[in-house]
Amino acid sequence: MGNTKSGAVSKELLQDLKISTKFSEAEITQWYENFQKQCPSGRITPAEFEAIYGRFFPESDAKSYAQHVFRSFDTNDDGTLDFREYIVALHMTSSGRMTLKLEWAFSLFDVDKNGYITKSEVCEICQAIFKLIPKEKVDDLPSDENTAEKRAEKLWGYFKKGDNDRIAEGEFIDGIMANADAMRLIQYEPTK
Fold first, then answer.
1. How far apart (Å, rounded) are the C-alpha atoms in residues 53 and 64?
2. 10-residue block means of pLDDT along the chain (192 residues)?
């Protein structure tokens, strides 16, 4: 990671992140300083991440969704997020490139990390997404999306797959990009 004794990001990490994210040196340095202040250990634990995520969805149950997001960001599977994982995740989720965002979405839905998505994984993530929706907003949903199960069934239906089939990353990305409803179903953004 960075040089935690001096509080400065290492030159190697800085160069790596500039290439892999296209963020500027100044942006990376500023984020590193903030990261070190917020996470003096240099790592974010699942509990800390859940607390951060919960602040974005104060009227919802964000815990299970935060756990899935954390899993998708923890690329080295060590149970924590270091600065590199944090910045790469920030880049993937905030980049303007839709394919990059959908690559991340695929990793979110690929719960067992085997390179494919199954209907049960779609159901699991749709359950987590549905918990983000405040109870009073559920009544506003279309009748074929007003439960997590219906939402998962509708999303799976867009791929025209059987219950025991699976979806590869390219097929997932193509299918979502070809259908605005599918794009909407893989996320929940609270209205402001």
1. 10
2. 58 91 90 90 93 87 93 94 92 82 94 97 96 89 93 95 96 95 84 50
